[in-house]
Design brief:
In chain A, 0% of the residues lie in helices and 57% in strands. Chain A is mainly beta. Chain A has one domain: Sandwich (Immunoglobulin-like), CATH 2.60.40.10. The chains are: A mainly beta (112), B mainly beta (114).
């Protein structure tokens, strides 16, 4: 079962534009993580935001977390063709406690 | 390179067969996770081990089993394979296995059941 659900499922933009992906989740969380997956490769961790944080930055990435709405967003600024990938949010379901559960992801295509 | 090693990279087998996927975690990581990724189901959590003990169980079928050995490498055994088991199987590792740290993923084993 999925805990997080990303939106949109697919996003196509031009190089230089910003890309925003959203994630909604169902249960209370301690933290939320974002990962990137290039086609057919392993996932790579991008950023972790804790439940007491509202915003976090890492290079061209900006992640926000709204625990009252049970949602998070990932903003990639000034997108590059190399940002083309699938992006996943992941959280721990409290019942499971320790295992990250991933959403179905947003597929981002950046064209030059 | 994440430091997580999965073998083999590709596996082609027939229905009804049994296969073993192997994972070596990053040096120093005590926890190993297994995930299955398919187009229709997305990335599904199967099972997690910490220092040789099962810590969390997800959507793992009874035909599947796993274990983590004293040297911390892990194996995922898939038996009585069906066409629907064709998927990309990922192993990931982390230091403490507590859910509040990042995971490092291997490059996966692509399983094709014919």
């Amino acid at each position: 079962s999925q805990q997080g659900e990303e939106d949109p499922q697919a996003l196509s933009i031009q190089e230089g534009e910003n890309a925003t992906m959203n994630c909604s989740y169902k249960t209370s969380i301690n933290n939320l993580q974002w990962y990137r997956q290039n086609s057919g490769r392993g996932l790579v961790h991008l950023i972790l935001i804790r439940s007491n944080e509202r915003e976090k930055h890492s290079g061209r990435l900006r992640v926000t977390l709204d625990t009252s709405k049970k949602s998070s967003s990932l903003l990639i600024t000034a997108s590059r063709a190399a940002d083309t990938a699938s992006y996943f949010c992941a959280t721990v379901i409290n019942q499971a406690g320790t295992a990250l559960i991933f959403g179905k992801g947003t597929t981002l295509s950046v064209s030059s | 390179d994440s430091g997580v090693t999965q073998t083999p990279k590709h596996l082609i087998t027939a229905t009804g067969q049994r296969v073993t996927l192997r994972c070596s975690p990053r040096s120093g990581d005590l926890s190993v996770y297994w995930y299955q990724q398919s187009l229709d189901q997305g990335l599904q959590f199967l099972i997690q081990y910490y220092n040789g003990e099962e810590r969390a169980k997800g959507n793992i079928l009874e035909r599947f089993s796993a274990q983590q050995f004293p040297d911390l490498h892990s194996e995922l055994n898939l038996s009585s394979l069906e066409l629907g088991d064709s998927a990309l199987y990922f192993c990931a590792s982390s230091v403490r296995g507590t859910g509040d740290e990042k995971l490092f993923f291997g490059s996966g084993t692509q399983l094709s059941v014919l």
